[in-house]
Specification:
Keywords: Membrane, Transmembrane, Transmembrane helix. The chain is mainly alpha-helical and about 130 residues long. It has one domain. Helices cover about 65% and strands about 5% of the residues. It has a two-stranded antiparallel sheet. The termini are close together.
């Protein structure tokens, strides 16, 4: 039995027309590489920036309690404001990522999926003797 995807993956509707997908070849394709590069160039820097922001909040709360307890308005202090800004920045980053993915990632991913489904990355060795016994 060959394994070309996760065990719970749905069988291809056109399995009779196309052979199994060569995912290694698809992953090496320049369009996939560009999709991955675009995703990483957005996600990794933003993750680092958020972690720095979060750690600044936590470290400031631990080592500068006088600053964090400084009242801004009424009983609302800097710690409360920064804590609420943590939530706001999380929602903001999520919204930004959704916009980014909808505009830059999803169209490329759809094209790549269509190429996979059209058989452009079929496993050329699957039909040869021993090819199915990987």
């Amino acid at each position: 039995m060959t394994s070309h995807g996760p065990p719970d993956a749905a069988p291809r509707a056109d399995a009779e027309e196309h052979g199994p997908i060569d995912f290694v070849r698809a992953q090496a394709d320049p369009s996939f590489q560009e999709l991955r590069r675009t995703h990483r160039s957005f996600v990794f820097p933003l993750t680092v920036a958020f972690l720095v922001w979060y750690l600044a909040y936590a470290v400031t709360a631990m080592y500068a309690p006088g600053f964090m307890s400084h009242k801004v308005v009424g009983n609302v202090n800097v710690g409360i404001v920064w804590g609420l800004l943590q939530f706001a920045s999380t929602f903001g980053i999520t919204a930004w990522y959704v916009l980014f993915a909808n505009r830059r990632l999803d169209p490329r991913a759809v094209r790549l999926r269509e190429e996979l489904e059209a058989g452009e990355f079929d496993d050329a060795d699957a039909g040869r003797a021993g090819g199915a016994a990987r």
